Amino acid sequence: MKISLAEAFKLKSFGYSKEKIIRKIDEYKFTLATERDYFINKMMGLEGKKTAKKYKKALFKDKTSVLLDSINDSVEKKSNWISLVNGFTRSGKSIFAQSLCFLTRASFARFSINYPILVRYTLEEMKEVLVNTEPPFGLVQDEEPNENGKDSQLKLEAVENVAESIRIEQISIAVCTPIKKGKGFVNFRFEMFGTNEEANMLRAFMFEGDAKYPAGIVEIPFHADEDFLEKYSKQKLQFTGNLKKTGGFVVSNFNIKKANKDIEYYYQKFKDEFGTKLKSINKIMALMELDGYLETENFKNRVASKISMLMIRDELKEQAEKEAKRKAAKISQTQSIKEPVATWEDLDFKELIFEMIKGELTEVELAIFRGICDGESYRFIASRCLGSSKLTSKINRIKEDIQTNYLGDAGEFAYHKLLIDANKNVEHYGGNSHEPDFINHTDKEVISFKTHVILNETKAKGEIAPSEIKTALELNYKCFLLVFCVQEGMFYKYDVPLPVTAANLTIEDLGYPPAEKRQENTPSILSPPRSGQVSCPAAVPPAPLEGEGGGVSKGKKKAG
C-alpha cells in the first residue's frame, strides 16, 4: 500500500502571468519579508531569464507523488534516500526535514517497524550515532555551523563520507545545510518555499540529484508529534547555547595541535613518496591506515582533506612555475631577436647558391630567378623571359616554388661548403631533420640557417626550432640565427638569447623529452654520420639525389 497525501492537498494551476504567480506565492506565509521578495523576484525574472523560466515552470509542476513514491520504494526495496534541505533561517527547513522522516517512518509502520528519529547537530555526532546505536530510520542534522569557520570544502567531503557510511547501513537522512551540491550522493535537494500554517502544509522546490534547476514543487504536511517537537526544541536550545560559548565553532573532541602535527608529517611523507599526484582524500586515508593511523574517521578525514588541499596547491604552483619558464623560453620576434649582431656582404656565396640550384631548374626558370635576385621588376622579367609583361603572376609562382622546394637546401649546402673550406668541425642536419641545421663545434655555436630572396619576406626571426635551443642548452653553446638574403647578397646574424641558464631550467621544463647523452668527444669531420647527419669531408657539396650537376634534390623542402 502506498502512502497518499492526495486528500490532504491538491496543487492548483494558475498559469504564468505576473498576477497569478504572485497569487500563487501569496498562498504561503513567509516569516521574513525578504524571503517572499526573493522568490517573487526569482519568478518575475529579476535574477536572470534562464533561472526565472526554470523556476516558473517548476512552480506549476507537482512532484509530490514522485517524492512519496521514492520514499516508499526505499522502504520496500530495503534501500535509503539522502536529502539536503536549504532555506532561510525560520523558513521551515527543520520542520520540513523532520516531516520527511515522519513520512518515511509511516511507510516503515506498514511492516510493523517503528524506528526512532534522532536529531544530531554536527557530523562528528552523526558518525557516533552510526557507531554506537542501532541504525535509526531518519537522522536530521540541523543548522550545522561551518566546522572550521571557513572551509566549506571540508564540510562537503565530510557529508559525503557520512553518506557513504549510511548507504551501507540503509539509513535515510535529511540534512539541513547551506550546501547546494551533493557530488552524486544526494537523491533530492529541497529549497524551502514558504509554509501554509492554516492548511498545515510545507512547500519546497525539489531538485533531483545535483540538478541546477528545480524539477517541480512538493507539498507535505507538518508532522504533529508534540513529544518529538518538545525534545527537539530542548536539544536545539542546548546546541545554540554551546555555540555562543565557542564563538560559533565546533571544537569538541578535535585536537587542533595533534591534527596540525599529523598533517605536517603525512604531507611531507606522501609528497616525498608520491609527489603532488596524490590528491584523492580516500587514497590518502587508506595510506594513513596502512601506516597504522588509528584516529577516528572524522579526525582522519579532516587531516586527509587538508593534505589533499596542500597537494593541490603545490601542484598548481609547480604548473604555474613551469608555465612561466616556458613563456620565458619562447623566442619572439618582438622581444628577443630584434637587430642583427653582425652583417656582411658575400657575393661569391650568392653565386655559389646559383651554382647549387641550376641543375634543378630550366634555363627560363633560372633566368627568371636570377632576374628576381638582381632586383628587376616582375613586368620586365616577364617581358624578357616569357614574352609578355602581363605574366607577372607566373613569375611570382616560379619564385615561390623555388623558395619552397630548392632555395633552403641550396643555401644550407652552400654554407656547409663554406664551413668545411674554413676547416670548421661541424655537424650538418637541416632539411626535414628534427636536429639543428648546424652545430659548429669549433666556435661552439648552434646555427639556425635560413635562405631568403628578400629579407623582409622572412618569418624566420620568430621560428627558432625547439631542438636548436635544446641542443645549445645541452652543449652549453651559443645559439644564432643566420639569414642570407640572396637579392642583397648579404648575411644577417642574430643572437638568440637562451631562456635562462641551465642551473635553473631543465630541458624538460621547456617541454622537450629527456635528451640522450651525446658522445663524449665532439665528432670530427670524418666521423661516421649520426642519424640524419650529412657528412661532407671534401670541400664540395654532396652529390644530388637526382638531376645533374651540383644541384639539390627536388622534393626536399626547406623554406626558411
**Side-by-side strand order of the widest sheet:** 2-3-4-1-5-6-7
Unreliable residue stretches: 1-15, 143-154, 239-254, 331-335, 501-505, 510-560
Task: Name the CATH class of the largest domain.
Answer: Alpha Beta
In CATH terms, what is the architecture of the largest domain?
3-Layer(aba) Sandwich
Globular, elongated, flat, extended or rod-shaped: what is the shape?
Answer: elongated
Straight-line N-to-C gap: 82 Å
Short description:
This protein has helices at residues 18-26, 33-43, 49-59, 64-76, 93-109, 123-132, 152-169, 226-246, 256-274, 281-290, 297-329, 347-357, 363-373, 378-386, 392-421, 466-475; strands at residues 82-86, 117-120, 138-141, 172-176, 188-196, 201-208, 216-221, 342-345, 426-428, 438-440, 445-452, 478-485, 490-495. The protein has 560 residues and is an alpha/beta fold.
Care to describe what's here?
This protein is an alpha/beta fold and 560 residues long. It folds into 4 domains: 15-60, no CATH class; 62-245, Rossmann fold, CATH 3.40.50; 256-329, no CATH class; 342-510, no CATH class. It is built from 16 helices and 13 strands. The protein has helices at residues 18-26, 33-43, 49-59, 64-76, 93-109, 123-132, 152-169, 226-246, 256-274, 281-290, 297-329, 347-357, 363-373, 378-386, 392-421, 466-475; strands at residues 82-86, 117-120, 138-141, 172-176, 188-196, 201-208, 216-221, 342-345, 426-428, 438-440, 445-452, 478-485, 490-495. A 7-stranded mixed β-sheet has the order 2-3-4-1-5-6-7, sandwiched between helices. Helix 12 (347-357) packs across helix 15 (392-421) and helix 13 (363-373) packs antiparallel against helix 14. The longest helix is centred in the middle third of the chain and has 33 residues, at 297-329. The chain is elongated. Residues 1-15, 143-154, 239-254, 331-335, 501-505 and 510-560 have low confidence and may be disordered.
